[in-house]
Amino acid sequence: MAGAIAIVVVLLIFPTIVLLSGGVASAIVGYFLQRDGEIRHEGSELLALDD
Question: What letter would DSSP give residue 41?
Fold first, then answer.
């Protein structure tokens, strides 16, 4: 009986953990890509439009 409860708990929690970790990974990648774009195009008048 304890094994069945453990399986149900894992099946309920695992998708949430996967989705949250995907969101965190997306935020980290987005931060570094934005920073890279600002560094590569420093002095461009288009960066002023982004603010």
Answer: T
